[in-house]
C-alpha cells in the first residue's frame, strides 16, 4: 500500500455563528479506551447527538457561517479544529424544494476558503454554488441559492471546495449535512412520523493538540466518528422503524457499513429517492456519497454498526474494520410497520438518445503524487468538457490506475449503466460513484435547468487537490 499525502501546510480554521441549538442527550462518561494504532484516547459510548439544525421558515433559510480555527470538543477531547459555527460537527441545514438559502460566510482563517453544496441541483454561477470563488481572510461572501420546486428530497452535504486546499480544510472539520425535506411523503402513513437520525461519517487524525490537516496520509490510523462522536449509542425499540441519513462527509476515506445481522432498506441515494426500496447487508459509501435507509429494531440487545475492512487496490489504501456506533434495542416492543416496496417515480436515462459520447480517463504518476483526467491536471482557466443544456450525454469513465476513485459531478445527477461491462440496474440517479481500479463504468447524464462553469472530479480530496479535476461548462 502506498501512502498518499497532500503537500500543503496550512494555518487554517472555520466556524458558524447561528442562533438556536438542537436538543442534545445528556453525556454519560465511561472509561476511555485506546483505539488500535491511534494516538489519542477518547471517550466511547455516549448517546447519539443529532447535530443542531437551521431550518427554513416561510420559504427562506437565512444563516451566517463563520469559518474559524477553534479549540473544540472532538469525540470527547478538546482539540484545535476547523469549525463552522464553532463546532466540529456543524448545524444541519434543512430546506424544502422551492426554498431560498441566503448564507453569509465570514472567513476568519489565514487562507482563503469557500463553500460547495454537494449534490444539489442549483446554479454554479455568481453567488450560488460557485466553487471558483475565493473568500479571502477577513472577507464575508453572501451566497444566495434559489432551489427549484423539483429539487429531490434526501440527504446532501456542504463543505469547503477551496482548491488546492479542499482536503486539509475538510479533514480539519469543514463539512456538515444538508437535508431537503419531503422524503417521508413517499412512505406509507404508518411510517411518516418515524424517528430520524443523521449518521454523518467523519474521521480525524491527531497531531499534538490539533486535528491534523497536513500532510494527510489517507491510510494512516484515524478516528472514525458519527456526528463527531466515537462509538455513540443509538436507541431503538424492538419492532420500531427509524430513518437514518448515512453520509460520508470525510475528506478521503471509504466506509463499508454493516449493521450486524440486519439489513438496510434503502429509500434514497445521493439525495435521489429510489423507484423501489431494496435491501442491503452492506453499503459501500465512497468518499462524498450518501444513503437514506430504514432500520428496524430487532430483539432486545446490542448490535454494532461497523465499517468493514476495505481495500481500494494495489496502489490505494487498506482501511481496517472499525466500530462506528452501537444500536441498543430496548423498551416496549412496537408492532413492525409494513415496509414499502414501490417508492418514488422512476427516472430512466437509458432510452434517451445521447447528444454526445465522451471518455474520461483517470490516471496518476507512479509516485502517486500527481493525478490526471485525460492526461491533464486541473486548470481553473481551461474548459475541459463543454455540454449543452437540455441534452443527455453518455460518458465512459475509465480508471487506468491501480486504485479506486470516487467520481463526482456538480450540478446534475447521472445514471450508471454498467460497471466493467456488466449492466447495472440501479434504482435512481446519483452524483457520486466508485470507479474500480483498472476498470471502467458507463453513465448517462442529463443537463437540466442551469448553465455555467463547474467541475467534475475524484472526491478523494487528496486526489482532487493534486490535479484530478476538470472544468465542465454547460452552455445553451
TrEMBL record:
<dbReference type="InterPro" id="IPR008972">
    <property type="entry name" value="Cupredoxin"/>
</dbReference>
<feature type="domain" description="Plastocyanin-like">
    <location>
        <begin position="218"/>
        <end position="298"/>
    </location>
</feature>
<dbReference type="Pfam" id="PF07732">
    <property type="entry name" value="Cu-oxidase_3"/>
</dbReference>
<feature type="domain" description="Plastocyanin-like">
    <location>
        <begin position="69"/>
        <end position="182"/>
    </location>
</feature>
<dbReference type="InterPro" id="IPR011706">
    <property type="entry name" value="Cu-oxidase_C"/>
</dbReference>
<keyword id="KW-0732">Signal</keyword>
<dbReference type="InterPro" id="IPR045087">
    <property type="entry name" value="Cu-oxidase_fam"/>
</dbReference>
<dbReference type="InterPro" id="IPR011707">
    <property type="entry name" value="Cu-oxidase-like_N"/>
</dbReference>
<dbReference type="GO" id="GO:0005507">
    <property type="term" value="F:copper ion binding"/>
</dbReference>
<keyword id="KW-0479">Metal-binding</keyword>
<dbReference type="GO" id="GO:0016491">
    <property type="term" value="F:oxidoreductase activity"/>
</dbReference>
<protein>
    <submittedName>
        <fullName>Multicopper oxidase family protein</fullName>
    </submittedName>
</protein>
<dbReference type="InterPro" id="IPR002355">
    <property type="entry name" value="Cu_oxidase_Cu_BS"/>
</dbReference>
<feature type="signal peptide">
    <location>
        <begin position="1"/>
        <end position="23"/>
    </location>
</feature>
<dbReference type="Pfam" id="PF00394">
    <property type="entry name" value="Cu-oxidase"/>
</dbReference>
<keyword id="KW-0560">Oxidoreductase</keyword>
<dbReference type="InterPro" id="IPR001117">
    <property type="entry name" value="Cu-oxidase_2nd"/>
</dbReference>
<feature type="domain" description="Plastocyanin-like">
    <location>
        <begin position="364"/>
        <end position="473"/>
    </location>
</feature>
<dbReference type="Pfam" id="PF07731">
    <property type="entry name" value="Cu-oxidase_2"/>
</dbReference>
Amino acid at each position: 500500500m502506498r501512502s498518499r499525502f497532500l503537500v500543503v501546510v496550512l494555518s487554517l480554521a472555520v466556524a458558524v455563528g447561528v442562533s438556536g441549538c438542537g436538543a442534545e442527550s445528556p453525556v454519560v462518561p465511561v472509561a476511555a479506551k485506546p483505539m488500535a494504532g491511534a494516538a489519542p484516547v477518547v471517550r466511547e459510548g455516549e448517546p447519539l447527538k443529532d447535530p443542531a439544525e437551521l431550518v427554513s421558515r416561510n420559504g427562506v433559510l437565512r444563516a451566517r457561517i463563520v469559518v474559524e480555527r477553534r479549540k473544540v470538543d472532538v469525540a470527547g477531547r478538546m482539540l484545535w479544529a476547523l469549525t463552522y459555527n464553532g463546532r466540529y460537527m456543524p448545524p444541519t441545514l434543512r430546506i424544502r424544494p422551492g426554498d431560498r438559502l441566503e448564507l453569509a460566510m465570514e472567513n476568519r482563517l489565514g487562507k482563503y476558503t469557500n463553500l460547495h453544496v454537494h449534490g444539489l441541483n442549483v446554479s454554479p454561477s455568481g453567488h450560488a454554488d460557485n466553487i471558483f470563488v475565493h473568500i479571502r481572510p477577513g472577507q464575508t461572501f453572501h451566497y444566495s441559492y434559489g432551489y427549484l420546486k423539483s429539487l429531490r428530497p434526501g440527504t446532501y452535504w456542504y463543505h469547503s471546495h477551496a482548491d488546492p486546499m479542499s482536503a486539509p480544510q475538510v479533514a480539519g472539520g469543514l463539512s456538515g449535512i444538508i437535508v431537503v425535506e419531503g422524503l417521508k411523503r413517499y412512505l406509507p402513513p404508518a411510517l411518516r412520523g418515524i424517528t430520524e437520525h443523521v449518521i454523518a461519517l467523519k474521521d480525524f487524525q491527531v497531531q499534538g493538540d490539533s486535528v491534523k490537516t497536513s500532510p494527510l496520509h489517507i491510510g494512516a490510523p484515524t478516528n472514525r466518528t458519527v456526528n463527531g462522536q466515537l462509538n455513540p449509542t443509538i436507541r431503538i425499540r424492538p419492532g420500531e422503524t427509524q430513518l437514518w441519513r448515512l453520509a460520508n462527509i470525510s475528506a478521503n476515506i471509504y466506509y463499508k457499513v454493516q449493521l450486524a445481522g440486519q439489513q438496510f432498506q434503502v429509500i434514497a441515494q445521493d439525495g435521489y429517492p429510489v423507484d423501489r426500496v431494496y435491501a442491503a447487508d452492506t453499503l459501500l459509501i465512497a468518499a462524498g456519497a450518501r444513503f437514506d435507509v430504514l432500520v428496524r429494531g430487532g430483539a432486545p440487545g446490542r448490535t454494532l454498526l461497523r465499517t468493514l475492512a476495505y481495500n481500494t487496490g494495489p496502489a490505494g489504501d487498506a482501511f481496517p474494520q472499525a466500530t462506528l456506533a452501537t444500536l441498543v434495542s430496548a423498551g416496549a416492543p412496537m408492532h413492525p410497520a409494513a415496509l414499502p416496496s414501490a417508492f418514488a417515480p422512476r427516472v430512466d436515462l437509458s432510452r434517451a438518445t445521447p447528444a454526445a459520447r465522451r471518455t474520461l480517463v483517470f490516471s496518476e504518476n507512479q509516485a502517486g503524487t500527481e493525478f490526471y483526467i485525460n492526461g491533464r491536471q486541473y486548470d481553473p482557466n481551461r474548459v475541459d468538457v463543454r455540454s449543452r443544456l437540455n441534452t443527455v450525454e453518455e460518458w465512459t469513465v475509465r480508471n487506468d490506475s491501480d486504485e479506486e476513485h470516487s467520481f463526482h459531478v456538480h450540478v446534475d445527477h447521472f445514471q450508471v449503466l454498467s460497471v466493467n461491462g456488466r449492466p447495472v440496474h440501479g434504482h435512481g440517479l446519483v452524483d457520486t460513484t466508485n470507479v474500480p481500479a483498472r476498470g471502467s463504468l458507463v453513465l448517462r447524464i442529463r443537463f437540466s435547468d442551469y448553465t455555467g462553469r463547474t467541475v467534475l472530479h475524484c472526491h478523494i480530496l487528496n486526489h482532487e487537490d493534486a490535479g484530478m479535476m476538470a472544468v465542465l461548462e454547460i452552455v445553451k
